[in-house]
């Protein structure tokens, strides 16, 4: 089944007179996974071990494990980015993790976000990304 575009969903929503009809008709279009489920799915898909990803992310291990097990609500955007970079997530996968974490997607008009996008596309380790961010006086991934 072909997924509807966001524009199509907006159009359907604006034209529908009954919200429940819209929700029922478009149920397959809604994201059903949680941040925790998606992170763990990516671990499996990328053949990564949680301990290795956490070590490479330079995050506090307790905090990072709490993100993976879902006990840490609303993890910081930078922490999610560090985990995504450490597990080799694609830009599309990273954007989905940010969305599930209730954060704005990476935006190429932001210098900091551009650095992070470049790092994701070129599989740059978190330590190297932080070095670049530090040299440019920007918030580190931690």
**Can you write the helix and strand succession as a string?**
HHHHHHHHH
Radius of gyration: 17 Å
Number of helices: 9
Estimate the global geometry from the Cα principal axes.
Answer: globular
The quaternary structure here is: single chain
**Helical/strand content category:** mainly alpha
Describe the fold and architecture.
- The chain has 142 residues and is an all-alpha fold.
- The chain is 61% helix and 0% strand.
- The longest helix is centred in the N-terminal third of the chain and has 11 residues.
- It is globular, with a radius of gyration of 17 Å.
Considering the chains and any ligands shown, give keywords for the structure.
mainly alpha, 9 helices, 61% helix, 0% strand
Give a short overview.
With 142 residues, this protein is an all-alpha fold. It is built from 9 helices and no strands.
What's the arrangement of secondary structure elements?
Layout: H1 6-15, H2 19-25, H3 35-45, H4 50-57, H5 61-69, H6 77-87, H7 91-100, H8 111-121, H9 126-135
Helix pairs in contact: 4-5, 4-6, 6-7, 8-9
